[in-house]
Amino acid sequence: MIREMKAIELKNLTFEFFGKRIIENLDFSLDEGEKIFVKGDVGSGKTTLFRILTGLIPVFYKGKLRGDVTIFGEKDPRRFRDYIHLVSQIPEEQIVFEDVLDEILSASQNQSLETILYNARKINAEHLLERRTSQLSDGEKQLVVILAALSSQRKCLILDEAFSHLHPSRVGKLLEFLLNSEQSIIFSDKRYGRHVNPLNNFDRVFDLGNKKATDSKLFENSTEISRSLIETPNLVDVSKETSKEILIAEGIHFSYPESAESVGSETEELLNGVDITVRKGEIVSIIGDNGSGKTTLLKILCGILKPESGKIYRHEKKISISLQYPNYGFTARSVRDEVSIPGNYIDFFGLRDLLERHPHTLSAGEAKLVSLLKAFSGDLLLLDEPTVYLNPEFCFKLVECLKRERKTAIIATHDMLLANLCDTTYELKKGKLKEIKVDGGDRRR
């Protein structure tokens, strides 16, 4: 009997990095045109697996790799990227060109402009084509690298937490469009695996925790689980404290330079008179569409950026910020030296085993945890997408820890479950903040 060849096949794969065995005796396969969801906890090896599939390991990232890897009949890892296009967790690392259209054209293989425009409309990214990549938010950059992947016409697309910085309203149609393509899709995302129904359309789920694939329904009880967690009494005390005001921002205006060149003759302010008051012990969340200015506002509140006009009164001595991309803030040679805070925090976030690791050798989820831990040394914490790359339940642990330690926090997030747990939620829209109520039952707001 002739055995049918798989499009992708890994046999008895083992990979060690800095003395740690990240993947052990792994078998993985994918049929041409198949759509697979890869799940696994922080540090389980998802990104490592994707780097092996694209040949980045062992060509670029070194380590001890054993086992057989075959990609569309090819065994030379230097040729794997002829067949596979990877959309990584950090889109900024993949962007090369200043103009969005040049970025997409560079990835295309004789793709017509009409097809690129069609794909852009389908994923609601047409408005980005005339922009400069340096002026995009992190979510907008993710849309650009996804569009570039679609234009690459590779046989297989790997999306590694590729929706992590996207507003939930953008996710459903984008995922549906990808799943209806003829290409093979390998997809991993912790946040949207919890509450976006189209995930049930995947052909198979591969659980890196169990090291084998399963045909069971993916997160079929996610809605019920989320609702029960929200309704659990006394999990955290989210009552607003009537304490002193520790941060007041009034009439904040801001626009990035040269923005007029990217949008024509009309220049629209990113922040157009933002007002916000935060009290000691209060946890505030800020939500808003991609490009609405959430990250910019956090950078202004902590002094990284200077507003064009407006006033900011800071009545807290130490303000700390955890950025979307944690590696930019790491300066020490070990996690232990990076997070000089009490050990109970380290144990609470489960990082005890990582203390001797170099921060830049961590997975994206592990690096995010270290960045948050580092921010806990402050009195006022500014947290930009703190739950991205992390397991869905982490938002409860984060809010519990903030409340327990009586920290004050301003959180920019697309995670509506996290926003629902905060004391106050604002929506940033058209340059202004408006206090809103978050519906705990609707995660796709």
Description:
This protein is α/β, with parallel strands linked by helices. It contains 14 helices and 18 strands. The protein has helices at 46-53, 56-59, 100-107, 113-122, 138-152, 168-179, 222-231, 259-263, 294-302, 335-338, 343-348, 364-375, 394-404, 416-421, and strands spanning 8-17, 20-30, 35-39, 64-71, 84-87, 156-160, 184-188, 204-207, 212-214, 245-254, 271-279, 283-287, 309-314, 319-322, 380-384, 408-412, 424-429, 432-436. The strands form four sheets. It has a six-stranded mixed beta sheet, sandwiched between helices. The chain has a six-stranded mixed beta sheet with strand order 14-15-16-12-17-18, sandwiched between helices. A three-stranded antiparallel beta sheet has the order 2-1-4, covered by helices on one side. A hairpin with a 2-residue loop joins β17 and β18 (432-436). α3 (100-107) packs parallel to α5 (138-152). The relative contact order is 0.12. The model is unreliable at 194-198, 211-241, 259-266 and 441-445 (pLDDT under 50).
